[in-house]
Amino acid sequence: MESKYYVCPVCKSKSLYLKHEASYVYSYLLDSDAPGMKNTEVFSPFLYDRRKQTSSIEYVECDNCKTKFNSDLIHETLEVSNHDL
Ligand SMILES: [Zn+2]
């Protein structure tokens, strides 16, 4: 089977990664023991009562030259590069 690679338009590297960055606010109800209804003995950040995403961004980054591409641009660029192979 033929392998398909995406090529960085800047440095021609094949190490491209899609990156997803997100920010969340975790809430813990203050009760009689450790904060959060699911925490009793100690406070564990992953035992949250509520989680709200406040922002997120997706982009493609070249692992070699660290150039970042926004997703709209990369779709066009990757398609062109793909046809060139
Ligand atoms: Zn590159």
What's the quick description here?
The chain is 16% helix and 33% strand. It is of the alpha+beta class and 85 residues long. Strands 1-2-3 form a three-stranded antiparallel β-sheet.
Give Rg in angstroms.
21 Å
Helix-strand category: alpha+beta
Contiguous helical run count:
1
Chemical compounds bound to the protein: zinc ion
Instruction: Tell me the strand order in the biggest sheet.
Output: 1-2-3
Q: If you average the pLDDT, what whole number results? A: 86
Please write the string of helix (H) and strand (E) elements: EEEH
Distance between the termini: 15 Å
- Count of structural domains: 1
Summarize the structure in words.
By secondary structure, the chain is of the alpha+beta class. The chain has one domain. Helices cover 16% and strands 33% of the residues. The chain is built from one helix and three strands, in the order βββα. Strands 1-2-3 form a three-stranded antiparallel beta sheet. A hairpin with a 5-residue loop joins strand 2 and strand 3 (68-70). The model has no long low-confidence stretch (mean pLDDT 86). The structure holds zinc ion (ZN). Zinc ion (ZN) binds at residues 8, 10-11, 13, 62, 64-65, 67.
Attribute tags:
85 residues; alpha+beta; 3-stranded antiparallel β-sheet; binds zinc ion
List the topology elements.
Layout (H helix, E strand, L loop, with lengths): L15 E12 L22 E13 L5 E3 H14 L1
Antiparallel strand pairs: 1-2, 2-3
Bound molecules: zinc ion.
The site of zinc ion has 8 residues, from loops.
